[in-house]
UniProtKB/TrEMBL annotation:
Protein name per the record: Ribbon-helix-helix protein CopG domain-containing protein
Domain of life of the source: Bacteria
Amino acid sequence: MSNTITVRLPKELSQWLEKEARRTGLPKGRIVREQLEISRTRQARQAFLDLAGSVEGEPGLSQKRGFQR
């Protein structure tokens, strides 16, 4: 793994990262990578929620005969 980026952090975020690194004993880079992964995973799970409520049909369709389980 050798992809390097430089990011300028606002003071508050930098302080949070520093405290989190001290609290957990983890390197700051690892914390940043883990948070990026969490964000990426959350977005992937969110995609299917965009479809919620998009199904069209008669109201009460699941209550009609033959559609119940």
